[in-house]
Amino acid sequence: MEHWFLNIAHWLTSWLVSLGLAPVWAEVILLVGQWTCIVGIITLNVLVLIWLERKVAGFMQQRLGPNRLGPYGFFQTIADTLKLLTKEDIIPSQTDKLIFKIAPMFFIIVSVMLYAVLPMGQDMAVVNLNVGLFYFISVGSLSTICLLMAGWGSNNKWSLLGAMRSVAQMISYEIPLAFSLLGVVMISGSLNLSDIVQAQHNLWFILLQPVAFITFFIAATAELNRGPFDMPEAEQELTAGAFTEYSGMRWALFFLAEYTNLVAVSALAATLFLGGWQGPFLPSWLWIILKTYLIMMVFMWLKWTFPRIRMDHLMSLSWKVLIPISLVNIVLTGAGIEIFRWMGW
Amino acid sequence: MYGKGLLKGLGITLKHTFEKDITIQYPEEMPFLQERFRGCLSFDFGKCIACGLCTKACPNNVLSFETVKEEGAKKKKLLNYTIDLQYCLFCNLCVEVCPTNTLYFTHSFELTKFKREDIKIVYHRPPELDLLPEEKETGNLEVQVEMPDITEAEAKRLKQLEAMKTALGKNPQKVLSKVLDTEEDIAIMANLMASDEKKLFKMAELMLGDREKARKIAQAFVNKEKKDRQQEGGE
């Protein structure tokens, strides 16, 4: 069970080579297959996640959540997706057509790119990049541009204002996000995500870096534009911020990308702090799924508990609280490493 | 401690997550209604003494009725009673003022209708009132009431009535199976209707209107016939 997917990949490449294909091309085909799998998993995940989110929200408010379509309302998301797919594609006449159209595509592409370096099991990263964490953070910050594109392309001042707010928020929270991860990098001594998982063989980093985990979690919530930091969207106050002019499948793509980001960041949190794919009894790929879903449940728990924070509070939380805390954490971690080294560990 | 409130909030949502849901899945599940819940205003024809207090008490002129005074009779006879529920504000004044507890609120709250004319609830004089022995003796059941102009709704009703009559005449078993339970009863009722056209007309009218009442009356007819037969058999 542990090596199912690795065996499939191995069997596929050897079969292609036996057909007389050059090994390079076999690798390329394997890569395409891997990406198709990732996109499939993401789509499936989003279907499950939206259902789960609505169900969790319902339970927290002592409601039932969706329960009409299929077992426990599971087919509700599928019906919603079909509805979105068949909706009319409305593009307002005064928009910057090109930017308006490519913004959602860029957003989803950037989100899917995050999965390249995530180890989804033992030796199961698509690309085993030695600067994996750096890649993840830098690609992740690209989604800010997509939001600004959406706001600018809409040619609507409220969309643009919403986009600017999102950009301000996301850039501010990028800093504590990156800083809080530095502690982990310092202890493991590597930016390669597989190496970081290996370094947690004895002890999960959530126990060594609890402060970093909390700051990472808060910054990630803001970075994902999720409640209580869902200022850019704020459906009750603003009309979806940068997404105001979007409808139908284009809007759904943004939605899809946000959930894709949620899965990616949760998987990253599991990888960095909860020991990644390591765990007893179950195969490694199942462990990472379980841990990812655990973290996503916490994200949902936070979203459906806390009221939306005010914009200036949001900014001051980042600049006056999270950044100093994460900086102090880095200093203390460095000092701790030195002390342990001096003690001869 | 800083952030204590946040943890408290998380605790509350976590607690609610595992509590029982308070959703009532109407219409599969019906909500619990208090005893004095004011649902549809209803009327018990047999109890009414046609005193008119309810119509005077009603602030919105919801209630109206028609009576006739037969020659030599001491009391007015109620012909029909109309509750125009669209104007009712469920104030309870008519129910309080009624000396015989004829008016009452039921627990039925599903008052939506497809057509405007269906909102009006009209109670016609049920035939069993006229079947009382002393009434039978006076015999003359025909009353002189001016027929109102036939409205569209009424015309439709008449049409439906005709259809029901023919259905009852042609295939009484099928129609009666909706109100009567045993085959024996159905056969008796069918016989009765075949011999007496008046009964057929009454049944048709009742079948269109109040199904529950139709059931009761049909059962009453059958029971009476059974009793008569028994007496005949005894003799």
Topology:
The complex is a heterodimer of chains A (345) and B (235).
Chain A (H helix, E strand, L loop, with lengths): L3 H15 L4 H38 L15 H11 L10 H17 L18 H22 L3 H32 L4 H7 L5 H4 L1 H14 L24 H26 L10 H20 L7 H33 L2
Helix pairs in contact in A: 1-2, 2-3, 2-10, 4-5, 4-10, 5-6, 6-9, 6-12, 9-12, 10-11
Chain B lengths: L3 H14 L23 E3 L9 H5 L5 E6 L8 E8 L8 H5 L5 E3 L14 E5 L2 H4 L2 H6 L13 H19 L1 H5 L6 H13 L1 H12 L2 H24 L1
Antiparallel strand pairs in B: 1-4, 2-3, 3-5
- Biggest interface, CB < 8 A: A-B, 14 and 15 residues
Proportion of residues in helical segments of chain B: 40-55%
Helix content of chain A: 55-70%
Report the mean per-residue pLDDT of chain B as an integer: 81
Integer-rounded radius of gyration of chain A: 21 Å
Overall number of structural domains of chain B? 2
CATH class of the largest domain in chain B: Alpha Beta
Cα radius of gyration of chain B in angstroms: 25 Å
Question: Number of helical runs of chain B?
Answer: 10
Query: What sequence of helices (H) and strands (E) makes up the elements of chain A?
Result: HHHHHHHHHHHH
Any idea how many domains of chain A?
2
